[in-house]
């Protein structure tokens, strides 16, 4: 009998193939059990939350799919990260036949629906940020006639993930795909002028940005300054800088109590300064939903029904949702004496 998904939604996925992309990046092609197929259907740009045991520790990390749904396979790509326990374990030890546990795909870094065929997809990727971008590019090229422009920044030529596949796509879709490589070793880090120069021919398209924080900040600021509408700018952040305990804005009121409703439970907790609403929920033993914990996926969203909170990062909720009181609890710090949030 096939092993079922666990209570927290993780299923066993066997590694069918290991593909060495660069000296410090590897792709894993994963087999999904037949009884989980429907739940593991994904959209281009989404990610998996993977759970592995390393040195006796149960660890969870989010990795984007680099495959496209049309390819009928599930592939994640993981780059080695200095000090990254799971990414290094995958690069050093993951082998064909091994088993990973993963939760079903999530994420909002996806292609919009009902886009006209003449609206270009413009993507900016830095380093391993190419992973979800590659899925988006492959999908746009295979399922539409939209023009696609990709600006891909790396430290050097040896760091380029998917060098061969990108060259093949550029040749196969020479009339629609433009790829520009940037190497820091040649011209320094990416500048705002380089971003604007690449984006200008595209006009009113949809813009996707993924990569290291400084790269993303530069691209985001340049695109907004050049007139790109915020609703057409899509960001996927892999990591964030943590706010040290005790650090709040001068305008924040000292919070004393957080009330949380989840799964028909209602608990009250004394607030510990510097903790997010998600951390507070966990302190009370609640199994609050969460996945990326970088403000990108929306899994942890809850509604503030009393009091207020501010989000350090929000790359998942639109303006209407924020106005209605929704917050990403992984990124939210209370700004009133009492905050009451409801997970729905």
CATH topology of the largest domain: Rossmann fold
Q: Helices and strands, in N-to-C order?
A: EEEEEHEEHEHEHHEHEEEHEEHEEE
Q: Give the tally of structural domains.
A: 3
What's the CATH architecture name of the largest domain? Answer: 3-Layer(aba) Sandwich
The helix content, as a percent range, equals 10-25%
The main pleated sheet reads as: 6 strands, antiparallel
Number of strands: 18
Percentage of residues in DSSP E strands: 25-35%
Q: What is the SS-derived class?
A: alpha/beta
* Rg over CA atoms: 21 Å
Low-confidence stretches: 240-251
CATH superfamily of the largest domain: Nucleotide-binding domain of ferredoxin-NADP reductase (FNR) module
Overview of the molecule:
Helices cover 20% and strands 32% of the residues. With 344 residues, it is of the alpha/beta class. The chain has three domains: 11-106, Translation factors (Elongation Factor Tu (Ef-tu), domain 3, Beta Barrel), CATH 2.40.30.10; 121-236, Nucleotide-binding domain of ferredoxin-NADP reductase (FNR) module (Rossmann fold); 257-342, Ubiquitin-like (UB roll). The strands form four sheets. It has a six-stranded antiparallel sheet, with helices on one face. Strands 9-8-7-10-11 form a five-stranded parallel sheet, with helices on both faces. Helix 5 (192-199) packs across helix 6 (213-225). The radius of gyration is 21 Å and the shape is globular. The two termini are 34 Å apart. Mean pLDDT is 89; it is low at 240-251.
